[in-house]
Amino acid sequence: MQNSPELDGKYLGQITQDFVLVSNTLKEAAYQLKSRKISEYPIFAISKTEVPIGQLLIGKAEMNLKWNYYFSFLEEFVQRELIQEDAIELFQNTYRDSDEFCCLFVVEQDFVNFVYIPYPED
Predict the structure, then answer these.
(1) pLDDT in tens, 36-65
(2) Hey, how many other C-beta atoms are within 10 angstroms of the C-beta on 36?
(3) What is the DSSP string of the chain?
C-alpha cells in the first residue's frame, strides 16, 4: 500500500460529509477516553472496509455512511507498531487539541495517514 502525503479532494469530500453526521459522537468518545485517563491522545481510524485497529464505534451501515469509525489511542498504535517508539514524541508534538480537532487515521486503498479535522462549532 503506497502512502500518499496529500489527501485527495475526493476523500476529503467524503470524509467531510460523514464527519458532519458523526462529529458529536467522536468528540464525546475522545472526551471519555481522556476523562477516564485511558489516553491523552484519542485517534479514530476510519476505513471503508473493516480494519483491525481499535474498536468499532460507528459502522457505515448504521447511519448510511461511507466510512466505518473505530476508536483507538496512541498507546494502541504504539503497541501495534503503527507508530514506532522513536516517533512517539514527534506524534505528541504534532497532535492537535482533541477538544477542537478530531485525529483521524484514514485507511483507504492508496492513502494511509493521519488527518486532523476541526469539530464543527456548536
Answers:
(1) 999 999 999 999 999 999 999 999 999 999
(2) 8
(3) -PPPSS--HHHHHHHHHHHHHHHHHHHHHHHHHHHTTS-S-EEEEEESS--SSSEEEE-TTTTT-SSEEEEEEHHHHHHTTSS-GGGHHHHHHHPPPTTTEEEEEEEETTEEEEEEEEPPP-
Q: Say whether pTM exceeds 0.85.
A: yes
Cα 98 from Cα 65, distance rounded (Å): 23
Neighbours of 45 (CB within 10 A): 25
72 close to 83: Cβ distance less than 8 angstroms: no
Q: Please report, as a single letter, which amino acid is at residue 65.
A: L
Length of the chain: 122
